[in-house]
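Hey, I'm writing a tutorial for new members on how sequence and structure tokens pair up, and I'd like a real worked example in the thread rather than a made-up one. If someone can provide the structure for the chain below, I'll link this post from the tutorial.
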Amino acid sequence: MDPTTLVIILLSFGFSLLFALGGIGSALALVPVLHWYGLPLNMAKPIGLFVNTLSMTGASVSNIRHKRLDFRMGIPIIIASSILAPVGAWASTLIPTHIVLLVFIGFLLFSSLMMLFFKAGKYKDQYRDDRPVLAPAMIGAAAGFLSGLLGVGGGGLISPLMIMLGFNPKKVAAITAFAVPFSSIIGFVAYAMMGTVDWAILLPAALAAYAGGALGTHIMHNRMPPALVKKFLGIILLGLAGKLITLL
């Protein structure tokens, strides 16, 4: 195994383990780190999307088994995000790389600030029981486009915006975990059809990420306080945003 592939495997395992401690997909950190290491951005993005598909599918299976998932609320998000994900992937071939990196920096900053300062508990007295279509569909469309454009899944946008609309965070977490694999796998297929997937790197990286995510999830459920972990991850994302600025 060549040194580059080995480093990518170790990075995939490490970041997937770390971000699973906070119940978050690792693509948000993995894609910029792989690009920083030297992988072309359009080769790093399908790795992130494939990793998100594997990790979030496992979470969705658990949510369905334990009847935590509100299918009706999630349908508008799934449909809209699935339609826009390949559009975002296609757009990434037309938009200059430095513009895509600027969008990535903005998304990293948004996600990090949400982790550091957003308090879902302040909405606990206004949880909604209705199932609107338009607002979740618009959120899903934006998340799907970003998923394809950046290779990150879009969950970091769906979750805080749905909570801001007044929906129960536990329901939102289950819906996000269910929606992200759809947009991720469709975005991944779009990149594969465009010929930017390096299967020799993707497959071992994905297996390593799956193993890291499974271990991180096990540790999270047994030992780690999620709020503290998310603040730590927020600081990491801030650092990654700063590093990406130096690559412009």
